[in-house]
């Protein structure tokens, strides 16, 4: 845990040194919201319903599994869904940029490529999200747009806002850089649904989240896939029975959540490698022994991986009623277009 994460989630005396910068951040972000609210800055509504999946804090907390689950559910319901992303870590300079499964993560960023491969839906990278969303509609004939990590991108109009919160909640409750918040907790009162990420355990909803009546989400881990040859599968119990040293590697918002997940599944991990979220994995990051990593890390590690590298995909599980409500709401919205 670095000093910034410690300050945000455990508290530290030196956080107060950042108070002037957080006050400046609050003023600038408040001004930006006011400009959109009053119409001085233009918010663009595209010709299809838009679902925003985001959070009010920095760092990963389960947004990508939510996007994947929505894509799967909406496809099954007959929608032609597309995803627009900022493409954090992407090196492309031409926008809108279509992400296809055969591309590499240095070109696309890790999460857009994961979504394109996992869901087989159109994915577009564009820092100007209205342009990217309209590209999905005109070029891919999408009738529903999911804006990944788009809560604070007010230039794109939206019909449904979903906020994902994990067990770390809101840290010290302060705005950047003093704390991890992009927006204050007041923002939770304005969104359509809050999704509480329980991880792989049935964690109770924290008391300070209960007034918002959040939807509970669990992660369902799948069997291991070989990074070099994803068609090769292995049960976690089979790897555990091999009695050999195992390294767990995670470059996500909360690596400890992944390490704990493996332990809960009965895997004894001899060594852990916690990397920053979106870390560009290199050959030096991968030890020679057996390695188990996240699916997002496998996207970046494929060209460096050896034959004993494995990743564990996860699926987000909600109540059927939550997904049914989203689908029904989208159908009502579509009738207005």
Automatic annotation (TrEMBL):
Record has Lipid metabolism as a keyword: yes
SUPFAM superfamilies, alphabetized: P-loop containing nucleoside triphosphate hydrolases
Binding site for ATP: 57-64
Gene Ontology terms for molecular function: ATP binding; lipid-A 4'-kinase activity
GO cellular component: plasma membrane
Gene Ontology biological-process annotations: lipid A biosynthetic process; lipopolysaccharide core region biosynthetic process
Transmembrane segments: 12-31
InterPro entries, sorted: LpxK, P-loop_NTPase
Known pathway: Glycolipid biosynthesis; lipid IV(A) biosynthesis; lipid IV(A) from (3R)-3-hydroxytetradecanoyl-[acyl-carrier-protein] and UDP-N-acetyl-alpha-D-glucosamine: step 6/6
Keywords linked to the UniProt accession: ATP-binding, Kinase, Lipid A biosynthesis, Lipid biosynthesis, Lipid metabolism, Membrane, Nucleotide-binding, Transferase, Transmembrane, Transmembrane helix
EC number(s) stated in the UniProt entry for this protein: 2.7.1.130
Name of one Pfam family that matches: LpxK
Catalyzed reaction equations: a lipid A disaccharide + ATP = a lipid IVA + ADP + H(+)
Top-level taxon: Bacteria
Listed HAMAP family: LpxK
Cited function: Transfers the gamma-phosphate of ATP to the 4'-position of a tetraacyldisaccharide 1-phosphate intermediate (termed DS-1-P) to form tetraacyldisaccharide 1,4'-bis-phosphate (lipid IVA).
Family: Belongs to the LpxK family.
Name recorded for this polypeptide: Tetraacyldisaccharide 4'-kinase
Originating species: Marisediminitalea aggregata
Lineage start: Bacteria, Pseudomonadati, Pseudomonadota, Gammaproteobacteria, Alteromonadales
């Amino acid at each position: 845990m670095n000093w910034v994460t410690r300050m945000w989630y455990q508290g530290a005396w030196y956080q107060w040194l950042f108070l002037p910068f957080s006050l400046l951040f609050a003023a600038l972000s408040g001004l930006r919201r006011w400009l959109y609210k009053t119409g001085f800055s233009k918010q663009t509504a595209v010709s299809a319903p838009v679902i925003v999946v985001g959070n009010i804090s920095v760092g990963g907390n389960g947004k990508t599994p939510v996007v994947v689950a929505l894509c799967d559910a909406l496809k099954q319901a007959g929608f032609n869904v597309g995803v627009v992303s900022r493409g954090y870590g992407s090196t492309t300079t031409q926008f809108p940029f279509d992400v296809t499964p055969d591309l590499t993560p240095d070109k696309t960023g890790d999460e857009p490529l994961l979504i394109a491969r996992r869901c087989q839906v159109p994915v577009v990278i564009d820092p100007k999200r209205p342009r990217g969303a309209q590209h999905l509609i005109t070029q891919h004939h999408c009738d529903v747009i999911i804006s990944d990590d788009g809560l604070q991108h007010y230039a794109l109009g939206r019909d449904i806002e979903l906020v994902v919160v994990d067990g770390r909640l809101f840290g010290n409750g302060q705005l950047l850089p003093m704390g991890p918040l992009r927006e204050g907790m007041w923002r939770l009162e304005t969104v359509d649904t809050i999704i509480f990420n329980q991880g792989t355990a049935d964690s109770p909803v924290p008391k300070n989240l209960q007034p918002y009546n959040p939807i509970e989400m669990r992660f369902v881990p799948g069997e291991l896939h070989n990074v070099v040859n994803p068609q090769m599968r292995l049960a976690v119990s089979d790897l555990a029975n091999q009695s050999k040293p195992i390294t767990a590697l995670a470059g996500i918002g909360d690596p400890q959540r992944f390490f704990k997940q493996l332990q809960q599944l009965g895997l004894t991990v001899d060594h852990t490698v916690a990397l920053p979220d979106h870390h560009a994995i290199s050959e030096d990051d991968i030890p020679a022994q057996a390695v188990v990593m996240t699916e997002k890390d496998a996207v970046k590690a494929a060209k460096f991986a050896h034959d004993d590298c494995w990743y564990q995909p996860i699926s987000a599980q909600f109540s059927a009623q939550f997904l049914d409500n989203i689908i029904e709401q989208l159908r009502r919205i579509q009738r207005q277009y």
